[in-house]
Amino acid sequence: MTLGSSRWWCPGFSGGTRVGAMSTASPSIRPLRRSAALWGTLWRMALALSTGLIAMLFSYGPALEATDPTAPESLALGGRLVLDVVLGLVAVGLIPLRRRAPLAVLLGIIAVAAVSATATGAAALVLVSLSTRRRWPETAAATVLFVAATVLFDLLLPVRDSVATWQLVLVAAALSSILPITGMYIGGRRELLATLREQADSARREQQAKRDQAQSAERARIAREMHDVLAHRLSLVALHAGVLESRPDLPEAQRAATVTIVRENAHRALSELRDVLGVLHDPDTTGQQRTQPQPTLADLPALFEESRLAGTPAVLQIDDAVAKQLDTLDSATSRHLYRFVQEGLTNARKHAPGQTVVVHLGGAPGTRVTLRLDNTVVPGSPAPGGQPRSGMGLGGLRERARLAGGELSVDTAGPGRFTVAAWLPWTQ
User: Fold this and answer.
1) What is the uppermost EC class here (predicted)?
2) For the domain bounded by 295-425, which CATH number is listed?
3) Do 345 and 354 touch, CB atoms closer than 8 A?
C-alpha cells in the first residue's frame, strides 16, 4: 500500500470477517543413449570377467598348492587353467547377446560354467538378467541348471575339499538363490518406474487436453463478448453515418457533433477489437448470449455485496491520485480489472472462505493502473459446497492480462498470505 492513500469502505462491509503421448527421442539424445548402453555392457562384462577370475583362483588354489611345479602334472593343470580362461572369455563375450536370446545364451554359458570357473561370473550375471523378466518357470529352471553346473564343476576339480555332495548341493542352492531374487527385485523396480512414467505422461496429456478444451471454450466466449461490444459500437457508427448521408441539409454544428460521435465510436470499436481476451470467467453465460452492458469498476459495489453475502467480505482501497481520475480509465481496461477482482474473490471464496479480501487500486494516468488483491490463507480450510479446484482460473487471468498489454502475478505476501497483483496500461 502506498503512503497517502485514502481508504473507501464499500457499504455493508464494516463489520464483516471474512488451484501427451510418449515423445520420440530427438536425434541429439540418441548418441548419448547409445553411449550409455555401450558403457553399461562394458562394465557388466568387466565385472563378470573379474568375478570369474576370482572364482578360478579360489577353485584351483588347493590344486596349485598341492602340485609340484616341476612335476608332469603341472603341465596338465596349466593347460586346464588356460582352457578355463579361454572358455570364460567366450562366456563373457556372449553377454551382449543376452537380450536377443536370453534363454539360449544362459544355457550356453551355464554349460561352459560346468567346466570353467572363469565363466561363473558371466553365468551369474545372465541369470540375474533373465530373472528381471519375472517369469517364474524359466527363472526356476535356469537356477536349477546353474546349481547343477556349480556342483558338477566342483566334483570335477583335481583337488577339492572333503565335503559331502548333499552339503555341496545345499550350499550351492542357498548361494545361487540370491541371483534370481536380485533379478526379480530389479525387474520389479523397472516395471514400477515404467508405470510411474506412463502415469506421469498420461497426467500431462490429460492436463494438456483439459487446457486445450478450456482455451477452445473461452475463445467461444470471447466471440460472444466481442459481438456484444462491437455490435453496439458499429450500430452507432452506421446509424450516424446514415444520418450524414441522408441529411445533407444538417446544420454545421449538428453535422460536426455527428461526425464526432462516429469518430469516437469507431475508435472505441477498434480499441475493443485489439483487446482480444484469452479467457473469460463468467460461468453464468455459458450457452447464452449476453445482452446487458459489460461490467466495469463502477459495478464493484454490487460485486462486493454479492461476495459478502456469499461469506467473503471485501474492502476497496484507492489511491487519491487514482480516485480523482478513475473516470478517465477506458472501458476495456476497467472491464479487465473488474474481471480480475471477480476471479480473485471467487478464488478466495473457494480456498479461503470467511477471510476478508483487501483490493487496492493504484497507478497514474498515461502510465499504468495497478491492482492488488490480498487475503489470509487458512490451511486445510474446506471450501463451502466442496468446490473443486480447477487450477485454470489464475492461468486465465495471466493470459487475459498478457493480451491486454499488462501482466499478472501470484505470490505469498507473507506467512499465511495470498496475493494477486496485476497491472495494465492506463490509456486515455
Assistant:
1) transferase
2) 3.30.565.10
3) no
- For 13-50, what is each residue's pLDDT tens digit? 333 333 333 444 455 566 667 777 788 788 888 888 88
- Cα 81 to chain centroid, rounded: 57
Poorest-pLDDT segment among 21-30, 122-131, 171-180, 392-401: 21-30
Angle between helices 136-155 and 120-131 (to 10 degrees): 170
Write the pLDDT tens digit of every residue in 297-310. 888 888 888 777 66
Burial 161-190 (b: 16+ CB within 10 A, else e): eeeeeeebeeebbeebeebbeebbeebeee
Please, what is the average pLDDT of the chain?
76
pTM: 0.42
Cell, residue 22: 510418449
What the block records as the C-alpha cell of 133 is: 523378466
Euclidean distance between CA atoms 227 and 273, whole angstroms: 10
Give strand pairing partners of 409: 421
Confidence (pLDDT) at 371:
93
Whole-angstrom distance, CA of residue 108 vs CA of residue 85: 16
Phi-psi bin for 366: left (phi > 0), alpha (psi -120 to 50), beta?
A: left
